[in-house]
Design a protein that fits this description.
This is Succinate--CoA ligase [ADP-forming] subunit alpha. Helices cover about 35% and strands about 25% of the residues. The chain is an alpha/beta fold. It has two domains: about 10-120, NAD(P)-binding Rossmann-like Domain (Rossmann fold, 3-Layer(aba) Sandwich), CATH 3.40.50.720; about 135-285, Rossmann fold (3-Layer(aba) Sandwich), CATH 3.40.50.261.
Length: about 290
């Protein structure tokens, strides 16, 4: 597995809000080690037995924190991520959708410069099966196994994980990187981690139309990847110039087209599934 395990100590930013409370409860019941929460003005409270602080700086002064998950409204979400990075938290999971793109451009660069890793925004988070869940995915569909998943889509991630689990293949770590035009971590950033992970035997890469992340990932796979990779591209029937679902899923000119992604995958020797069930068949074939 990569990035997170059952020992990962988690801070929840926006813990007192409806979403924050709901998902904190779900994460705790999965076994996630949540040590603190932050909501400005609510310091001194407890939510589900978790102490709440006014600032991230205050929380990390009282607790060792390895990762933060953010449930903060869009106008303040990028600043919340920056607050976590400035407090020295190494992994930041930004769930919030609809964050202004310029806010994200600024935040992504600064967080990188501070040495933290940002996942998201507009993502379902990260889960190491049967160890820890730092996100909003339905934990029960992730069974411990041999396959890593990196995905731009939430729902497709859950379906792929469920199919792999039902087939007895299971998953190691699954990372939902988010579907916005500007995100903190790309396919290409995570592939090297899975490449070196002794538990991961194959990787499923679930992409979408729009952007060039899939093409860049394919180039990396072609040059460096030692393990089999299986691909899937969502939104292949979308018309050009029309945004489909995610803000990042829009084709402009020849960049981001399904053809461009399929060609890149073919050149890298990545088989592409047309259906979720076919992902399972291709993984089985790749693992022999």
């Amino acid at each position: 597995m990569i990035l997170v395990n059952r020992e990962t100590r988690v801070l929840v930013q926006g813990i007192t809000g409806r979403e924050g409370q709901f998902h904190t409860k779900q994460m705790l019941s999965y076994g996630t080690k949540i040590v603190a929460g932050v909501t400005p003005g609510k310091g001194g409270m407890e939510v589900l037995g978790v102490p709440v602080y006014d600032t991230v700086k205050e929380a990390v002064a009282h607790h060792e924190v390895d990762a933060s998950i953010i449930f903060v409204p869009a106008p303040a979400a990028a600043d919340a991520a920056l607050e976590a990075a400035h407090a020295g938290i190494p992994l930041i999971v930004l769930i919030t959708e609809g964050i202004p793109t310029l806010d994200m451009v600024r935040a992504v660069e600064e967080i990188k410069a501070l040495g933290s890793r940002l996942i998201g925004g507009n993502c379902p988070g990260i889960i190491s099966a049967e160890e820890t869940k730092i996100g909003i995915m339905p934990g029960h569909v992730f069974k411990r196994g041999r396959v890593g998943i990196i995905s731009r889509s939430g729902t497709l991630t859950y379906e792929a994980a469920a199919a792999l689990s039902q087939a007895g293949l299971g998953t190691t770590t699954t990372v939902g990187i988010g579907g916005d035009p500007v995100i903190g971590t790309t396919f290409k950033d995570l592939l090297p981690l899975f490449n070196e992970d002794p538990e991961t035997e194959a990787v499923v890469l679930i992409g979408e139309i729009g952007g060039s992340d899939e093409e860049e990932a394919a180039a990396w796979v072609k040059d460096h990847m030692k393990k089999p990779v299986v691909g899937f591209i969502g939104g292949r029937s979308a018309p050009k110039g029309k945004r489909m679902g995610h803000a990042g899923a829009i084709i402009m000119g020849n960049v981001g087209t399904p053809e461009s992604k399929l060609r890149a995958f073919a050149e890298a020797g990545i088989p592409v599934a047309d259906t979720i069930d076919e992902i399972v068949e291709l993984v089985k074939k790749a693992l022999g």
